[in-house]
Amino acid sequence: MSRSAHPAGPRHADVLPEGHYSAPPADLNVLDQKVWAQTVGRNDDGVVTVGGVDVKTLAEEFGTPAYVLDEADFRARARAWRTAFGADADVFYAGKAFLSRAVVRWLDEEGLNLDVCSGGELATALSAGMPAERIAFHGNNKSTEEIHRAVEAGVGRIVLDSFQEIVRVAHIAQSLGKRQKVQIRITVGVEAHTHEFIATAHEDQKFGIPLAGGQAAEAVRRALQLDGLEVIGIHSHIGSQIFDMSGFEVAAHRVVGLLKDIRDEHGVELPEIDLGGGLGIAYTSADDPREPHEIAKALTEIVGRECEAARLRTPRISVEPGRAIVGPTAFTLYEVGTVKPLEGLRTYVSVDGGMSDNIRTALYDAEYSVALVSRASDAEPMLARVVGKHCESGDIVVKDAFLPADLAPGDLLAVPATGAYCRSMASNYNHVLRPPVVAVRDGEARVIVRRETEEDLLRLDVG
Ligand code: LLP
Questions:
Q1: Contact residues for 4 (Cβ-Cβ < 8 A; gap 6+)
Q2: Which of 39, 95, 243, 322 is the most buried (most CB within 10 A)?
Q3: Distance (Å, rounded) from C-alpha 293 to C-alpha 291?
């Protein structure tokens, strides 16, 4: 269908959603820098470019859908965290947000450490040459085999998540003739203001050992008695996609409180605390994330102040940002396949990916932005819903968006801020192939994770 022949979107004044998309933006061609990677812009032809490469070239060369990652932006964000926390703290990038060997090398070069939470992430980190002592190993149910591998490799710390695991790790370390550095993950009882599935500091959930009722203190008591363990600190992660700093502050306060109790009971001052990740990013223009230096300042100040009051030596702080580093660095590039106006409702725009490359909309009601990136358009805004190609009506990528009414099959759309938890949570639902990750930098684009093929799918199907 030619662009001019395409019917304009339905009149939608009566179905405008609430919140971010309650009114169309003044100019749909303008890209809000808040939600796009740093090097993204439009060239003179109206085509969006990233890292000096335009999206039409990327689509031709690598196909769609594709995750397109701005390497310079990734490195800049990693560096910003590193610089903000300085030499007296450690930044562990949370690999669960997105991990590949290229990413591990960038982190290594930028001086960050790495948090892994499975044998697969550990294998990826080690295979890319991340020094084991800069790796932290997480998880609420690490297998014996995973623990064995981590201890044998010499990971810098294992974060213990249960009473059983305290004993398990101690035994494995002893059997290997080692003393494993560990932190104990506690739940501090903070209600983080985020989606229920990604809040992790309240007590009624699977992670950590509750501070309440003296359980965390008991865990420390037991761990300190075991020869296979060297308890280096306490860990707290309150949740993810958080904007309100107060949760982190309360957590820091309670963690220091526990350090004080430990000192009073055992005469031991644990040297480290880890305050986890969780800093929110902008998915739409309505989000206002905090900068790493603000977080660093707030956390360092509160820990310093509390320690001084408790007459404790200030512990070394570590943090574990995932989303805040990789999230904004990538967008997903899709091609429009069909445009279906539903009179009086909205226009459904189908793209060539969907819930298999971005499950966050379906899983968390996450909001995303979207833009027409293969050309500029002066057409009227139409209220659209960007949907995928899966056999499920909940297969929504962007629930409410304004797109130009002349949108047509063949146009390229990009959904920004998909660097975190999109490729890493991608699936093969409907046997759809997972898209590649293409890293762009200084006018060069290269595949860092290749597109899945039907051979890849069939390789596992051995029946
Ligand atoms: N540290 C620990 C112990 C964690 O469990 C997590 C995330 C992080 C650090 C990194 O959090 P971040 O800075 O990325 O918020 N799939 C969900 C997010 C789950 C987060 C799990 N843990 C999503 O797509 O929003």
A1: 406
A2: 95
A3: 5
**Whole-number pLDDT of residue 353:** 98
pTM flag (> 0.85)? yes
pLDDT tens digits for 211-227? 999 999 999 999 999 99
pLDDT more than 70, % of the chain: 93
Indicate the burial class of 365 (C-beta count within 10 angstroms; 0-12, 13-18, 19 or more).
exposed
What does the block give as tokens for 181?
Answer: 């550095």
Query: Ligand 1 center to residue 1 CA distance, Å?
Result: 43
Q: Residue 95 corresponds to which tokens in the numbers above?
A: 């690999």
Domain 13-70+328-460 -> CATH class:
mainly beta
Q: Is the CB of 320 under 6 A from ligand 1?
A: yes
How far, in Å, CA of 39 to CA of 52, rounded? 8
Instruction: Give the contacts of 225 (CB within 8 A, at least 6 positions apart).
Output: none
List, by residue number, the catalytic residues.
391
Q: Are 201 and 190 in contact (CB under 8 A)?
A: yes
Residue boundaries of the structural domains of the chain: 13-70+328-460, 138-321
**C-beta 241 within 6 A of ligand 1:** yes
Identify the segments of the chain with pLDDT beneath 50: 1-14
Ligand 1 geometric centre to CA of 350 (Å): 29
